[in-house]
Amino acid sequence: xxxxxxxxxxxxxxxxxxxxxxxFILYLTVGYFAxxxxxxPELASPRNLSNQLSNVWPLLAVAVGQTFVIIIGGIDLSQGxxxxxxxxLGAVIVTTxxxxxxxxxxxxxxxxxxxxGGLLAGAPYGVVVAVTLMLAVGTLIGLVNGSLIAHLKMxxxxxxxxxxxxxxxxxxxxxxxxxxxxLPPEFTQLGAGDLVSVYFGEKxxxxxxxxxxxxxxxxxxxxxxxxAVAAQLILSRTVLGRYIYAVGANARAAEVSGVPVKxxxxxxFMFSGFCAAVAAVIYAARLQGGRPTIGSGSALxxxxxxxxxxxxxxxxxxxxVTWTFVGVVFFVLLSNxxxxxxxxxxxxxxxxxxxxxxxxxxxxxxTRLLAREGVG
Length: 376
Description:
Largest sheet: none
Radius of gyration: 22 Å
Strand content: under 5%
Helix content: over 70%
Order of helices and strands: HHHHHHHHHHHHHHHH
Shape: globular
Number of helices: 16
């Protein structure tokens, strides 16, 4: 009886340590991949891995911004709308040709776009201007969101929900729900380019493609990882990072302690808008068009889901970019396997919603267990 009890306690203790470990989602991701690869061998093929990684990078970019917002106890529902809106703005600048049959009813027809293209179509620095404008507008929208929340004490949910409705509708209105295509190759390379042809030549690239293998080191990968590394350094190595955690843990106590809470909130939402714009650049370049609906549908579910699954607490005060990265990988892997099962979009969304709910419940359980043990 004693041996059984000891083994039972040992198993329970191991499960408890595993549950409380900050690497729990990493273990879960590796285990899930190993099991699913048995049933779907193509899951581990180089081409499939490369394709799935291409889905990771834009989602990681926007989820990094959502991580900051959730750490301070907020939420940003406007990120998807920002992505669609700024992708349209960027395309308006550099598109090289526009179909009049599709856009002659648009309010910007003849003013910002014409049959010959956008404002800077074919200009040497057109792509630089377009990307700069996209990043600036995304950051500005985040500033407006943050200012309303910080100075007027409006709930983040309400402010960003209004932003979601406003900017998604504006993007659709400006384009009449059409996609602005014919983007120059200098722009599309940001979403599909790789280092193979640059450093090893076109012959090596052709060989890789002939063997049905896609390159792993791509421009979106470098952009997203650079953003993620910079964000993690901000959280872990700067005064601003300590302020962000303090605001999320207890905003009132942080303010009493001298933390500039209003400026921190504004900075976080500005960064969230900036990250959404970075993701918009990657998505628009990859899809070769400015799409007003680029962040609609289940995109918001993906963004928040990946962040929460990674371990960032909806209660605020806890989260890491490294956790978000693992959450993004798990969420993309989950979507890939669900699609491989041949499930309808409805059932896929139901399963993903259930996973997010389970992640939120798990976070509440972990918080309670840690509180009992007097940890964190």
